[in-house]
Amino acid sequence: MIPVSAFAGRRVAVLGLARSGRAAVTSLLAGGAEVLAWDDDAATRQAAAAEGAVLRDLAALDWRTVAALVLSPGIPHSFPTPHPTVAQVRAAEVEIIGDIELLARAQRHSRFIGITGTNGKSTTTALIGHILKLAGLAVEVGGNLGTPALSLAPLAADGTYVLELSSFQLELVASLVCDIAVLLNITPDHLDRHGGMDGYIAAKRRIFAGQDARCAAVIGIDEPISRGIFETMKAGGGPGVIPVSARGAAPGGVSVEAGWLMDHLDRDAAPVPVLDLAQAERLPGVHNWQNAAAAYAAVRRAGVAGDIAAAAIRSFPGLVHRQELVATLDGIRYINDSKATNADAAEKALACYPAIYWIAGGLPKAGGIAPLAPYFARLRHAFLIGRATEEFAATLDGKVPFTRCGDLATAVAAAGERARRERLPGAVVLLSPACASYDQFANFEERGDQFRRLVAGLREVRSR
Q1: CA distances (Å), 278 to each of 58, 124, 256, in order?
Q2: Are residues 167 and 304 in the same domain?
Q3: N or C: which end of the chain has fewer CB within 10 A?
Q4: Is the peptide bond before 80 cis (omega within 30 degrees of 0)?
């Protein structure tokens, strides 16, 4: 836990008491602040009170007595409609910040590596942390990845915080300057929360705020929006800009060419082959090649030798819920990709396997799965769950055989049975839902955990 003394002796309100909000309460109290906490959900309030939070209905608060509002990133502050408390706070001209900003104020002398992007940021964050730890550096890894920023350990000036930063979090940061900022890609997502694509792009670009020539900006150039940001920043001075590509050369940066990670960082020398990424078994697919390239660029900028970085990439264990190999039963791999909560994320998994028994569905997002049509030929059968069932069935009708399963347990059993019966080379049962989880689960982690338990049940049945 990191004490936050920036508000010592002053009153601070915290709205939203999930993991990051409760961590903020604890850190502010440890730093000497008077903390008033609230969540609109009664059960969440009770859980926070059990941990020592002082509850106060913020709707009746005199905001002239408050130094700042620490807002959960999940609570709307601008679009589609600001939370009523946020409107009151703005009218009183009180500062609105998030837990990442509190970390930045508490650890001003530490180094920060920030990672954002529509897809791939969790894997890239974990991979950077893995490399730096194996290189012997003092590192803490968290943020949007799972561990709240203020639950991390305090670090000295030579320590580095590696933080996954969502667009929601970046909008609540005022003073954080990333020594190394990584932008992987930008494709449409969360547009309702940002008022459209321009607002979403602006939120992502905040990761570069305050950077100067001592800093580095690592930017993916494989899609138009982030490539445009790269070109603009390259021409505009400021931080050193490092391009990364999974699809071709990246002069001055890092690329993947014919499956090989290539170091182009020394512009005056020939590109250096670093690693055959086929050896990085937990990083399958072109999207993970970009993640590896970005991580390599970031750690090289942080001073890690190329051979150490390559060895660490090779040994990376991967992340749960992100193309996680849960088991291989009867020659069929069961893959947990529950983190794929939109079509763009699911596309990354569909591109990796030749014969897919696909479990998809949940709470649908705009655009559905129509953009995945180029991968339908890889689908042997689809098993549909949740609220998206009829929408997805309409898209697949006449193109891919499907079964309406309703829930995940039914889908896993049906997919496993069909895969065993057909016994196709390279077959996988793939949970890559292309949907949010909230119609049947609390979050994507709970959905993925259930998938793992169900597969473990199949393993037990086979062993009898």
Answers
A1: 54, 17, 12
A2: yes
A3: C
A4: yes
Q: How far apart, in Å, are the Cα atoms of 351 and each of 159, 212, 374, 412?
A: 38, 38, 9, 21
The answer to whether residues 59 and 165 belong to one domain is: no
- Contacts within 8 Å (CB) and 24+ apart, 256-265: 256/286, 256/289, 256/290, 256/292, 256/293, 259/289, 261/289, 261/292, 261/293, 261/296, 261/310, 261/313, 263/296, 263/300, 263/306, 265/297, 265/300
What is the pTM for the complete model shown?
0.86
Residue 451 has pLDDT above 80, yes or no: yes
The total number of structural domains that make up the chain: 3
The domain boundary, picked from 294, 315, 336, lies at 315
* Residues 385-431 pLDDT 10s: 999 999 999 999 999 999 999 999 999 999 999 999 999 999 999 99
- Catalytically active residues are 121, 144, 190
**Backbone phi, then psi, for 405, in 5-degree steps?**
-105, -25
SS3 184: coil
Q: How far apart are the first and last CA of the chain?
A: 46
Q: Which residue has the tokens 């399963």?
A: 405
Same domain, residue pair 162 and 282: yes
pLDDT at 462: 63
Q: How far is CA 299 from the centre of its chain?
A: 19
User: Residue 307 has what DSSP assignment?
Assistant: H
Q: In what helix (H) or strand (E) does residue 358 lie, and over which residues does it extend?
A: strand 355-361
Q: How far is the CA of 320 from the CAs of 385, 416, 429, in angstroms?
A: 21, 20, 16
Percent of residues in the chain assigned helix, strand, coil, to nearest 5? 40, 20, 40
